[in-house]
Design a protein that fits this description.
This protein has about 475 residues and is an alpha/beta fold. The protein is built from 12 helices and 17 strands. The chain has helices spanning about 5-35, 80, 90-95, 130, 150-160, 170-180, 235-255, 260-285, 290-295, 305-320, 335-360, 435-445, and strands at about 60-65, 115, 120-125, 140-145, 190-195, 215-220, 325-330, 370-375, 375-385, 395-400, 400-405, 415, 420, 425-430, 430-435, 455, 460.
Length: about 475
Amino acid sequence: MNERDLRFLLRRRRFLKEVACGIGMMGLADLLAADGRTADTANPLAPKKPHFPGKAKNVIFMFMEGAPSQMDLYDPKPALQKYAGQPLPDSLASQLRLAFTKKDAKILPSPRVFRPHGQSGIEFSDYIPHIASCADDLCLVRSMQTDAFNHHPGQALLFTGSIQLGRPTMGAWVLYGLGSESKNLPGFVVLSSGVGTSGGASNFSCGFMPSHYQGTLFRNSGDPILYLSNPEGVSAETQRETLDLIGDLNREHLSETGDQEIASRIANYELAWRMQSAAPELADLSSEPKHIREMYGLDDPVTRQFATNCILARRLVERGVRFVLMMDASWDQHTYLNRDLKKNCDRTDKPAAALIKDLKQRGLLESTLVVWGGEFGRTPIVEIRNSADPENAGRDHHPLAYSMWLAGGGIRGGQVIGKTDELGFNVVEDPVHVHDLQATILHCLGFDHTRLTYRHMGRDFRLTDVHGEVVQKMLA
């Protein structure tokens, strides 16, 4: 090849890069726009319109990791006393999928006392008197079902619609569909309490979506977010100049590649800059009045941690954050059920009820959907790991029937959905699968769950996978 031919080839390559690729990108942008997939690179989390006007604008999901025992909290089963100490009938035992317990284990009655509450007369356990006081605002679902009987798969199914890891979680889907109304805080925030969850970060991952849909984990002490404060000796002016330089380089790279992860990086850097002033103010609860502190139990060492997260959840919603995931662990009472379940309820009952009441008195409950529950339920049969200790009794995992509740944001309170058999083993009326719950949550936000999709590797994915029906009885 001579010098003349080389120069011609270089000019042609330059043309293809600067012109032909530009034409291709224009065509790609047009196709993406037709499919509703273009992103505002200046603000990829800008508010978006749902498919139809939804009654909920925000979600607070109180996730009780480990699976609370429904027959000791929400679903009274006096027949457990009648059959106490007997094995399950073979017809039921054959359906069991157990993590640890043998199928010939004996039926374990609940010592809890259930009483009706509110005008609706819904029965609640004596372990949760504060939540019970909100009975007329709650839609209690006693007929939940799931496909997984171990924690990590169960949490994955609840939050991503699949037991396969790597898919976007519920918060990411909501943020993808609606964007965020907060300019200075993440649109999807995670608050943790207790001892940590089995699923961990996979419960708030963005999966194969761009990383600006990822949940942001706030800490319980110190800076709400790691590295939020500038290092010693770095001024705000220096920080701003550094971000401007990095932003210029990233925008140049974005213009060449069109890679949306670079757009996410630009947006995340700018959001982090704004959060340096917004997050400390958010986390400073000293301005909360005395009656609010007392209502939540903020100054009580037993309730302080969960109360702090409940108040933060309210403050986040007030500031436009779209999805708040509160992960509290662990409710996995394989042993010492009565003792440890009481500890969990003592920590969380008062703050959870206070959140409902506080949102309501501020006029926020109508636009905020609150969800409480775990990844599955517990068995009516006993699990014994130390036969020498009579207080050691617990319950194993049970995916076939369990309870959750919802409030606000398009949900009709003061009602019970579904019914289980006399042992609380199977659903006998109005089953609600995890996918149905997901479809209903999206409906309250203004989405047809079959149309909220994201294309990845040649197929359209959705939160409800290929399942799910909106539970009309739940809706206001």
